[in-house]
Specification:
Blueprint (H helix, E strand, L loop, with lengths): L9 H27 L4 H18 L3 H4 L3 H32 L12 H12 L13 H26 L7
Amino acid sequence: IIVNRGNMQPREQVIERDYFNIVKGLGIFSVIIGHAVFFARDFVYIYHLPLFYFISGYMYNELKYGDDPFLNVKNKLKSTWSVYVIYMWLMVALHNTFYNFGLLRNSENLYTKNEIIEKLCNIVFGSGDELFGGPLWFLPVIVLASIELGFIVSLSRIIERAIKFSWIKF
């Protein structure tokens, strides 16, 4: 996503997009280092998630969503949330197969039909706890944070117009 902030020329927009793509790449690389290099873990964990959340907030398209936070909610549910739910449902559906092949921890059990239904419902509300879904733990958090940001921006725009003070968001 590239947002024209003021009177930016097309060349400046490309530089900004490239800059943030590089920063996102460094963030992804940091996650890999944090998970793969045990002695770097403490250092990398200081900044890698705040970096992702900062970039997500910075790339929020106020021109598109500023006055309609529900459009942001709709888009987040359609894109990020749907991917999370489908992936986690797939992991629940395959849980017993993974168990039978010995791919799960010894503390895991086979799911009954009722447990499968319960787990599928929990996933819809962002509280999935499937073992192979663990890497996606941050998706419900970032979706909710983005939705919250959308409502804060929308409210600040309403207040800004009401009191005629343009620095309210600052």
